[in-house]
Design a protein that fits this description.
Chain lengths: 154, 659
């Protein structure tokens, strides 16, 4: 085998592995990515029931209700629109009314959001960036207030 | 006074760094030995000054000097002493100070132990190392000064984030940084080689131990971080494909590829240009990791409240070093001489295969991690790419890599015999196939994929043993000869086999725990039971306890199996008064390599408490494998060739061959 042939084999192998990787990435992109929406987006876009999304905002004060079998109902708000969320399971330690939250799941036929994952922040001074952006859009985020949204500063 | 001294020491380190950035380059240009030697002294002094600066901050923390903003924000006088030490890097500013400390440490190590390096190469390496150091000193001094003072000292600090008040903070960040920053040496060597326009097998022999040491720290650091997340965050998972985790995985993948390609370069003088590129990429990915974690573009446990100017500054450092490095590579690399020839089926070929799959796997992680950021920057659309994406892309690329792993060490250099290697792996194949069948039958015929995963893990493990058996002649020769050969086998050969074995152990753990973990979430009242995986847990009641800086509600559980008490579990909820923050402390019960995992949820009005119980079969293997891999690396690092910088004396080798 000449040097040239060997190099061709190498390039061929590299190209085919790369092609496989690109194909895998493209197919996975179509199936497994999840879009983030603010409550306003959810209400205004009229997303079809069953589509998998993430929503983020603040847990609306007074909306948190606990039921049997670890059922949790609450509303996520960006100050403009609210979305009702249902979740069964244990919520994170920093999940509280008036605090930022990100939930992942599906919209049900009635417009309720059925969450299978609920994420809160890891630090009480820190707000998830998605939530900050969602609040900024509705003008509920005040840069000058630091890391807390205006509505929840003590 | 102490914070000012610390600040001043850091400024002095910057000044020394600036001298070290220029003088050795001029020295190398004009063959001025004194100018070149200067770099060694400045590198050592830089480390001394950064260490002083770091000690100053540590003193501020230990003495609870709340006049320093950083201490006020992240410490509390009642915090246990060990956390006062670790909270030095439990915040943005302090963690960047740790970053530069380790960077200076590596520079000093090259200065101290690089005695056998050619003078110009050493001068260039130290200069490049200093360019990086200066960029980060400036970053710390201009945007993240850990020594800033408050006009009036408060009486009490605001406490460290309770999630970080854990022993994991003492281990995970320093190890991870040793790994990240350790790759800077490989980068500096690569840039120095490009500047000099000369690279040979000796270069690989100098770079390999540094890369290996960094790789070992990174391996342990990632494993430790994973175990910490597992027990601290209360979700019971060990890997979330979170962008920050990916940020540490990418340099690991590139570094692993670099370790393997450097072997080809050292032994066969081939793959030179590729090895250089990998050295640049491994550190570039470390920088990207630092950017992702420290700039606040991502939301995660690692993100401390941060302001956007820092992100821009790190981005500039990123562009400067990655862009500059790659441009220099594009310009100078074609000038380097091409190395040796090899057939596609050979040890070199196998290592190229390894590199191809590792870098491609790294690329998919890169795309999955950065695509959401790029998409948001361009279209303002927010997406999240999670585990399903990586399971569909990363896993299919890693499986062929693992399958090929036992073949590599059995192939000869230059021209290998694939059929011969396969024949020698018969035992491994047999064990693998039997394991697949046994697993399939034992688990009731469900889940063919997990069965194959287990089979693959056993194939790789036995394959590593076969490699050792072949080299020592075990099962074929008398015991005395085998012992003699085992003792004469280079430690790097032991290291390879053990590290490969460790990879398989990790795979085994991952397959077991992702396939057969079980979970129950229930609300329990005192004296009620919950059963899972043959264990029966009785909730005995709640107890209140007080810790040094928190109060905790402990739920006491008795664990029985077949009526026999096997242990007690005490998960708790801790409330930290200063931050009015609650954390969940999971309880773990280890049985063999498996664990029971119990974490608490909220208490209900009717007196019951929500609990989440997991059974994690063989979960400890996941991290134990990483420890085994690191041990393999350590053996390899202690190899005479790397330690002394020379292969075994010829006389002894000849003697052995005569046996």
């Amino acid at each position: 085998m000449t040097r040239k042939q060997r190099r061709l084999i190498l390039i061929g192998a590299a190209a085919s592995v790369l092609a496989i990787a690109v194909a895998l990435v493209l197919s996975a992109m179509r199936e497994s990515i999840v879009f983030f929406n603010s409550p306003t987006d959810v209400v205004e876009k009229q997303l079809p029931p069953g589509s998998r999304i993430r929503i983020g905002g603040l847990v609306k004060p007074g909306s948190l209700k606990r039921g049997d079998n670890l059922l949790v109902n609450f509303e996520v708000t960006d100050g403009n629109k609210d979305v009702a969320v249902r979740y069964q399971g244990i919520v994170p330690d920093l999940f509280r009314e008036g605090q930022g939250v990100v939930a992942e799941g599906k919209i049900e036929a009635g417009g309720t959001f059925l969450a299978d994952t609920v994420l809160a922040k890891h630090d009480e001074r820190y707000m998830p960036r998605e939530v900050v952006d969602a609040l900024k859009k509705t003008g509920r985020w005040n840069e000058g207030e630091g890391h807390m949204p205006a509505s929840t500063t003590k | 006074m102490i914070p000012e001294l610390g600040h001043y020491a850091l400024v002095l380190a910057l000044a020394l760094g600036m001298i070290q950035s220029v003088a050795p380059v001029i020295g190398a240009r004009y063959r001025d030995a004194a100018m070149m030697r200067l770099a060694s002294s400045t590198a050592l002094m830089q480390f001394v000054f950064v260490a002083l600066s770091f000690m100053a901050l540590t003193v501020c923390y230990v003495t609870s000097d709340f006049s320093v903003v950083n201490v006020f924000e992240n410490s509390h006088s009642t915090m246990p002493l060990v956390y006062k030490f670790t909270s030095v890097w439990g915040n943005h500013e302090g963690s960047m100070l740790l970053w530069v400390l380790i960077l200076a440490l590596f520079g000093a190590l090259v200065a101290a132990f690089g005695g056998n390096l050619p003078a110009t190469l050493k001068a260039h390496v130290l200069a490049v190392q200093s360019w990086i150091a200066c960029a980060f000193y400036l970053f710390v001094l201009l945007t993240s000064n850990p020594f800033a003072r408050l006009p009036q000292a408060p009486f009490e600090g605001r406490d460290l984030n309770p999630i970080l008040q854990d022993f994991g903070l003492a281990v995970h960040p320093p190890l991870l940084y040793l790994g990240y920053v350790g790759f800077s040496i490989a980068f500096s060597f690569a840039i120095a080689a490009l500047i000099e326009g000369r690279i040979d097998a000796a270069w690989a022999r100098w770079v390999r131990p540094w890369t290996l040491a960094a790789w070992m720290c990174l391996t342990l650091g990632i494993a430790m971080g994973s175990y910490w997340a597992y027990y601290e965050l209360g979700w019971g998972g060990f890997w979330f494909w979170d962008p920050v985790e990916n940020a540490s995985l990418m340099p690991w993948l590139a570094g692993t590829a670099l370790l393997h390609s450097a072997v080809v370069m050292e032994k066969r003088n081939a793959l030179k240009i590729w090895t250089l590129l990998l050295a640049i990429l491994a550190f570039s990915l470390s920088l990207i990791g630092t950017f992702l974690v420290r700039s606040g573009v991502l939301t995660s446990v690692h993100t401390f409240a941060s302001d956007p100017t820092r992100g821009v500054f790190i981005l500039m450092i990123l562009v400067l070093f990655i862009g500059g490095g790659l441009m220099l590579f594009a310009w100078r690399a074609p000038l380097l001489k091409q190395g040796g020839l090899f057939a596609p089926i050979s040890r070199e070929g196998a290592l190229v295969f390894n590199n191809l799959f590792l870098t491609t796997a790294c690329l998919t992680v890169f795309v999955g991690t950065l695509y959401p950021l790029a998409l948001e920057a361009v279209t303002d659309e927010k997406i999240s790419v999670g585990a399903p994406f990586f399971n569909l892309t990363f896993a299919p690329l890693f499986i062929p890599l693992l399958f090929a792993m036992p073949f590599g060490p059995l192939l000869a250099w230059k021209r290998g015999d694939l059929l011969g290697a396969a024949q020698r792996l018969m035992a491994a194949f047999a064990v693998g196939i039997v394991t697949v069948a046994a697993t399939f039958i034992a688990k009731g015929g469900v889940g063919i994929l997990p069965a194959f995963g287990i089979g693959l893990a056993f194939f790789v493990m036995v394959g590593a043993l076969v490699d050792l058996a072949e080299r020592t002649g075990a099962f074929r020769m008398p015991f005395a000869i085998v012992r003699g050969r085992a003792a004469g086998l280079p430690r790097s050969a032991w290291g390879t086999a053990i590290a490969h074995f460790g990879m398989a152990v990790t795979l085994l753990g991952i397959v077991c725990v992702t396939s057969w973990a079980s979970e129950r979430i229930v609300a329990l009242k005192p004296s009620q039971h919950v059963s899972l995986a043959g264990y029966d847990l009785t909730f005995d009641g709640l107890v209140q306890r007080a810790g040094p800086n928190f109060r905790e509600t402990v739920a006491k559980f008795t664990v029985r199996r077949g009526g026999v008490t096997v242990g007690e579990m005490e998960p708790s909820k801790r409330t930290f008064a200063t931050r009015t923050m609650t954390t969940t402390e999971a309880a773990l019960l280890t049985r063999g390599f498996s664990q029971l995992y119990l974490s608490l949820g909220d208490a209900n009005q009717d007196g019951s408490i929500a609990v989440r119980l997991y059974h994690k079969p063989q979960v400890l293997l996941t991290w134990l494998g990483a420890v085994v891999m690191t041990f393999g690396g350590l053996l390899s690092l202690s190899d005479r060739r790397l330690r002394i910088g020379a292969p075994k004396p010829a006389a002894k080798t000849a003697l052995q061959a005569a046996e």
